Amino acid sequence: MFDISNKMNLEAPTSTVLYSIEEAIKMYRKLSYHNISALIPDITVDQGLILMIIARSNKTQSEIADLIFKDYASMTRILKLMITKNYITKSVDSDDRRKTKLKITEKGEKTLKIIEPVIKNNREQALKNISEKELNQLYETLNKITQNCQIISS
């Protein structure tokens, strides 16, 4: 349990709320990976998320990288692997040759149909016994933490 008196205690980093946030994220990713890989062993949580983003938007590679908190080099490696595994294709944009288009393959579409219910169940499992009021408060609190951590550029 988080002890508010330890808010600034550098001697106990594992008892801070920020540690708890990181722990919750890691446990959720572990649950997600376990449940997804049981059905599709060659896809990662990030790759599944990328498939979902591509299916629902026209985002560029760099926009997707920002959405999933990946640097551009990592994003390039992930996409290359997804192309090799035949989940997506990448082509030059005919309107702007500096841009590329990402498209889901038939295998990618089939994979989405399999993993989307798994992701829904993962989210339900993770948020079980948490009220809407608690979720709204959590969103507000996490947004404040995010704003507090933003680096102001001049």
Structure, explained:
With 154 residues, the chain is mostly helical. The chain is built from 6 helices and 2 strands, in the order ααααββαα. Strands 1-2 form a two-stranded antiparallel sheet. The chain is globular. The relative contact order is 0.11. The mean pLDDT is 90.
Annotation keywords:
154 residues; mainly alpha
Break the fold down into its secondary structure elements and pairings:
Elements: H1 17-37, H2 45-56, H3 61-67, H4 72-84, E1 88-92, E2 100-104, H5 106-126, H6 132-149
Helix pairs in contact: 1-5, 2-5, 3-4
What is this entry, summarized?
The chain is 60% helix and 6% strand.
Percent of sequence in beta strands: 5-15%
Gyration radius (Cα, Å) is 19 Å
Q: Write down how many β-strands occur, each being a DSSP E stretch of 2 or more residues.
A: 2
Shape: globular
Helix content: 55-70%
Order of helices and strands: HHHHEEHH
Low-pLDDT sequence parts: none
Average predicted confidence as pLDDT: 90
The N- and C-terminal alpha carbons lie at a distance of 39 Å
Major beta sheet, strand line-up: 1-2
Classification by helices and strands: mainly alpha
In DSSP terms, counting alpha (H) and pi (I) runs of 4 or more, how many helices? 6
Query: The biggest beta sheet, please?
Result: 2 strands, antiparallel
